[in-house]
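Sharing a chain and its predicted structure for anyone who wants a worked example. Both blocks are below, sequence first, tokens second.
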Amino acid sequence: MTSRYLVAVDGSRPAAAALRWAVGRAASDGNPLVLAHVLDDEAGAIGTDDEAARKGAQLLAETAARLSAEHPGIAISTRLLSGSVPRALASFADPEDMLVIGTGKTGFLHGRVLGARSVQIAMAASCSVAVIPDVDLRFRRGVVAGVDRHSTAAAIGHSAAVEAASRGEELLLLQAAPDRSTRLTPTARADLAIGEAIAEAREVFPELVIRSRVAARPPAEALLDSARDKALLVLGPGSLEPVRSSIGSVVHDVLLNANAPVLISRAAG
């Protein structure tokens, strides 16, 4: 369960999109909202520390005051952090928190630059991370979840089912199997991890509308294509091997080109 929504605030449009998303969640489930601004020691110029701190504190205070007036039922607090953005946010977040960050409008041409910070933060954080692109979400419905292996399938199915049920929307469970035929036999499909995710989702929410798909395409491509009209894309953390990146190559590519809110559920790890 989420303890707090920790939102990175910097005055940018992507950060504003992340804040709107987190406010909607906090208003719905009653969890507190923490606004965090980082005095980035990798971006500031020498001699401007005091001015940067003043502006950061002012941004936090003004944002908190506005949100408190608009949403009096949400408990809102602020925190001014310093250091590199990924390390500062990761160090402040508790494992039970959900860290919410924005990312610029992406795509395979522009995402490599604009989405890079979201990858760094997701790699550093030990809690669940929601990466919110600056896109119009008003007409999006449904949750899609990516399933990759047996060890995390049930946890991903559970996390995604919770998300879909809370929205009252359907769930699509997707596994990419590019080395298999698109016409899988029942036996071959039963061998895939997606079966475990379906079983878990149906057990916890038997009334939930659940669809499943096995795609004979590269995983990141299949996930992004399925997420184009969805309200949320749920993924596990990626690699569980300590010698590799904790988010894995598929999560890495999805974050660089996010076209929907992406929730990296650490519960799936």
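Comments welcome. Residues 49-70 form the longest helix (22 residues).
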